[in-house]
Amino acid sequence: MSSAVALKFPLTLSPVSNLVSFHPHQRLAGRYELIKILGSGGCARVYLAIDHQAKLQVASPYVAIKILRAELHNCPQILHAFRQEYRKAQSISHPNMVKAYAFYELEDSVFLVMDALEGRTLGQLFRDYSANGVPKAWSFLMIEQLLAAVQAIHQNNWVHYDLKPGNLFFNKHDSQLKILDLGMAREKTAEGKYESRPMEALTPAYASLEMIEGAPADPRDDIYSMACVIYELLAGKHPFDRLSADQAWKANMQPEPVAGLTRRQWKVLKHALAFRREDRIASVSAFQRKFFVRLSVRTHWRLFFGCAFLTEALFLAWALWRG
Length: 323
Description:
By secondary structure, the chain is α+β, with helices and mostly antiparallel strands. The chain has helices spanning 76-91, 122-128, 136-155, 209-213, 219-235, 245-250, 263-272, 284-291, 297-322; strands spanning 27-28, 32-40, 44-51, 62-68, 100-105, 110-115, 119-121, 158-159, 168-171, 176-179, 186-187. It has nine helices and eleven strands. A hairpin with a 3-residue loop joins strand 1 and strand 2.
């Protein structure tokens, strides 16, 4: 398993001494053998591990273990957020979402058990293809998968609220794009509004104008973030030179058209990049339907019979000319 296995964790590095001390080959909960550390963050460390109880039942026994920092075990807010991260991941079952298998609160450790992935984040891919963007066929495959995953999140009454290249991972084993993290996701309440709480952190280049302004969460926030990622995937650069939405809006910036898109596809993408929520395309399904136009069954049959009739007419004309 390569060192490219990845899970989302906070980016502010923490001293090793501030974390529970674990060592290679140690077992957690009697079944998860730690192999190596994948990363260290402000709240947790992430390890690659082997699940010994799953070794004979699945193709790969490897999992990722995200272990909460020791001094945070008694912090109710952090513990709640950690539990919520597991609940969110459990609530959405989709091939383009990272799976969460288990959550443990033991005497000496609190940790999540999740998918271990091998491949690269879109951020890494963007650096490799910064000149002209990711090849079109591959881009369109990932765009379809990204749209499907975000639509699943919205259908389950969540707004992801943190879509960005570093949170999107192309898994080479199943050729699937995966959304790595729901840690900042907002859930729709019984009143039909999305939960409101202080923004833990945001990535300005991919945050909508409303996120920056502190407005209540809305699915169209994800649409703006997603559109920035799609633009970068296709063009090899950020639509607004990595400026935040408020800076780009104040500068009256407009994204350059993306080479290789049809006029219709560019119109859809530009619509999704609108700074103001009310000007943005309304839903992921609308983006998907307009960006990837698929012919209906009736239209396919009309084209088939139309082509057959034209072929027959051309054959008769040729026969008469030869005749």
